[in-house]
Design goal:
about 270 residues, alpha+beta, Immunoglobulin-like, eight-stranded antiparallel sheet, 5 helices, 10 strands, about 25% strand
């Protein structure tokens, strides 16, 4: 079977009991997929390690101010929700301070301002979301897996799925090769390379049925090599023959019946 795609590898790395017997069987015999799986697994193991949140610092009020400004939030939520001791003067008018959390401060001995109410410190504060490892740990692990899978997908590049040796026909002597490549997004392309360009007119690349009764033109090749998109849904088993023809400049879109090289694709 072909290499496992990034989604399947990510799920196998993230979940030990993920039901994909075929994928696990492939992993046991494919060194390349084993290396990719090991890299993803290291990322998962690293994210499952509970960090020490004791030394984490709460973001400053400027962070929430930026979020509030960029999202266009209302004045009712303009105060930093992570502030440890909010100033009563800065609270919205509609949010009275709860009486059970206030206590009076004694009047200064030499006069001064009247007593004010300050928040009590007796009840322990609930840990903020950034101090609780559970939710953000799972989110961070998923994000890391997606990023790692994307980088891995881009780094692997197109995968060869079929190839052919191209031999000369009739009075021609050029030789060459052809390969069908499948990109990570599933699109396919045909790469053709010849030892030289022997066309008296111009070269055209074709995929032809085994009985030579049907053919599909992939395009004109103006040099000794070229890459051509294979139409989506085209079954290469129905059109396995790669043909490069010598076409005259006569305006006829059909095959000239004069082929320079030809070969059959095999997986």
């Amino acid at each position: 079977m072909p290499h496992l795609d990034p989604d399947r590898l990510s799920l196998l790395a993230l979940y030990d009991n993920w039901a994909d017997d075929e994928g696990r069987e492939h992993l046991r015999s494919c060194a390349e997929c084993q290396a990719d799986f090991a890299a993803l697994r290291r990322a998962v193991d690293a994210m499952k390690t509970t960090p020490d949140a004791a030394d984490l610092e709460a973001p400053g009020p400027h962070v929430w101010a930026g979020i509030h400004r960029d999202l266009g939030l209302s004045r009712a939520v303009q105060n930093d929700p992570l502030a440890t001791a909010p100033d009563a003067a800065q609270l919205p008018a509609r949010t009275p301070l709860p009486e059970r959390t206030l206590r009076p401060v004694p009047r200064p001995p030499q006069g001064g301002s009247a007593p004010v109410q300050v928040p009590a410190r007796d009840a322990p504060r609930r840990a903020a979301w950034w101090q609780r490892p559970g939710p953000w740990l799972a989110a961070a692990a998923a994000t890391l897996l997606v990023a790692a899978g994307t980088v891995w997908t881009l780094s692997r590049g197109p995968e060869p799925v079929a190839q052919a040796d191209l031999a000369p026909l009739a009075q021609y002597s050029a030789t060459g090769s052809a390969a069908v490549l499948r990109a990570p997004d599933g699109t396919r392309s045909l790469q053709v390379k010849l030892s030289k360009d022997e066309a008296r007119g111009y070269q055209e690349v074709w995929l032809i049925a085994p009985d030579l009764s049907r053919l599909v033109s992939l395009g004109v090749m103006n040099s000794a090599s070229g890459t051509f998109e294979v139409p989506a849904g085209l079954d290469l088993a129905d059109f396995p023959i790669v043909d490069v023809s010598d076409e005259p400049l006569d305006g006829n879109p059909g095959h000239s019946s004069v082929s320079i090289v030809r070969g059959t694709l095999t997986s």
